[in-house]
Design goal:
This protein has 266 residues and is mostly beta strands. It has no helices and 20 strands.
Length: 266
Amino acid sequence: MERTADHGLDTGVVAIAAGFSHTCAITSERKVACWGSNGWGQLGNNTVSTKDQRSPVLAKVLTPGVLAIAVGLEHSCAVNASSEILCWGRNNEGQLGYASRGESSAIPTVVSGLGSGFTAVACGTAHTCALSAGGGVVCWGSSSALGSRTSPQRRSPTQVHGLDSGVTAITAGRMHTCALMSSGGVKCWGGNNRGQIGDSTEKHAIIPESVNLPISDVVQISAGDVHTCALTSRGVAKCWGGNGSGQLGNNSKTDSTTPVSVAGFP
């Protein structure tokens, strides 16, 4: 088994992403190192094991280097230096983007039919979305999280309705995805049983819905399991969705279908 170093990643890490039970990092050499659970090959080192990997191992064949990384429940994806998306791990819902097969993969493989020109990728439980250099978003995997009115082939990338341009960042939760627009607004789609879409409802969002933010100057977004948070240019933190563990930070455990301010910030 190929390892990154005898003592792990002491130095040289430039980016990191955490999933449910595994983690991946990009090294300064633009390689990918992963550790943790590997029951579906999500570490990408051409092995599958029920035994946890307690130190980093290098993912295989990620040439010509990696620029971005994302980790889901049991799969991982990356953007390489050729602006292509590669995925590996579990593929039960087509989250690896393999149009002709449904089996898992322990080796990073380029998503079928997607081409190049991508700058970012986001992984949910069983879906994946990618952001193009032109600001468009495509998704594949679990059909309930694709953001399309049509009945797409889940194993192939599908254009998200209305988001063919104007997106600057994406983030994925368990069954929902959110996009940061160049206007400073946020749109979300997918599962909404706890209000994680932020559109004042708990109705599943088949296509992207605008989050009910009182201002449109969001600069960063991040999705959790069933909640979402945003940071504005004025330093205000807003969150919405499930709040059973207090993850909205507003001194309560009540879910919110609209954004609420995190307590303690000016």
